[in-house]
Design a protein that fits this description.
mainly alpha, 11 helices, 0% strand, globular, membrane, ABC transporter permease, transmembrane helix, MetI-like_sf, transmembrane
Length: 257
């Protein structure tokens, strides 16, 4: 089944690339705005041979990784503390519902005012957007803890941290991994967006320069790189998720009785 899916995916990608080559050649779209796949591939090869490209890639990955680590750490800690403390849960409910829907891009002017085009501006946006993905999933996971298991742990004399480790964490972990996977994708989107709009060093800034200088094939080549990067991050996150949840029925394919 996996081999069949991979073959179908490869065929779909090949058809898409062929369509991207044929449509401009037939004059259905202007090559100046949508160059053929072959020209984009040539531009991509040129980018890969440029040291500045790898520096920009490193800048993007640095902002993505640091922001993701901060967001995941803060989201897990805050989610557990808020969920296990009724007072905190009630006190923060309205604040969370108010802040969570605010688009991260709306904070771009604030980030620029505070930090200019530095890495810290990127981190503000990445952390803000990714934090909510993790926090909400952790809170859902904690709320899904079986009350019977919780009471059984209490009856056996397990302390607070022992209950968190042996009861709460195994239940919440699938939710946590989902939050991390979503946060990883959101972090990349915001990192590139921040670079594109703010001008912070990275792939986004390089895309903006290519666009303003009318280097259209190079611009598409860089867009392809960001797409491939997103794909690799998603695949990596799913791989980590499967390994971390190897014991869980959703990964083993078992049906709960």
């Amino acid at each position: 089944m996996k081999g069949t899916n991979a073959l179908l995916g490869a065929c779909g990608l090949a058809a898409f690339l062929a369509l991207g080559e044929v449509v401009p050649r037939l004059g259905l779209v202007d090559e100046d705005y949508f160059p053929p796949t072959s020209r984009i591939a040539d531009a991509l090869a040129t980018e890969l041979a440029d040291d500045a490209f790898w520096t920009a890639l490193g800048d993007t990955l640095t902002g993505w990784a640091i922001g993701l680590v901060i967001a995941v750490s803060a989201g897990i800690v805050a989610g557990v503390l808020i969920s296990v403390t009724p007072y905190l849960r009630e006190a923060t409910a309205s604040t969370i519902e108010f802040l969570r829907p605010i688009p991260s891009v709306a904070l771009i002017p604030l980030a620029v005012l505070l930090y200019g085009t530095e890495l810290r501006s990127v981190l503000v946006l990445v952390v803000y957007a990714s934090f909510w993905q993790v926090l909400v999933q952790v809170m859902y996971g904690v709320q899904d803890v079986d009350p019977v298991a919780e009471e059984t742990a209490r009856s056996y004399g397990l302390g607070t941290w022992a209950r968190v480790r042996h009861v709460l964490w195994p239940t919440a972990l699938p939710y946590v991994m989902t939050g991390v996977r979503l946060a990883a994708a959101v972090a990349l989107i915001l990192a590139v967006t921040a670079e594109l709009v703010i001008g912070a060093p990275g792939l986004g800034a390089r895309i903006a320069v290519a666009q303003t200088s009318q280097a259209v094939p190079e611009m598409y080549a860089l867009v392809v790189v960001t797409g491939v990067l997103g794909l690799l991050i998603n695949v990596g996150a799913r791989t980590v998720e499967r390994r971390a949840l190897a014991w869980h029925q959703s990964v083993r394919g078992e049906v709960a009785v």
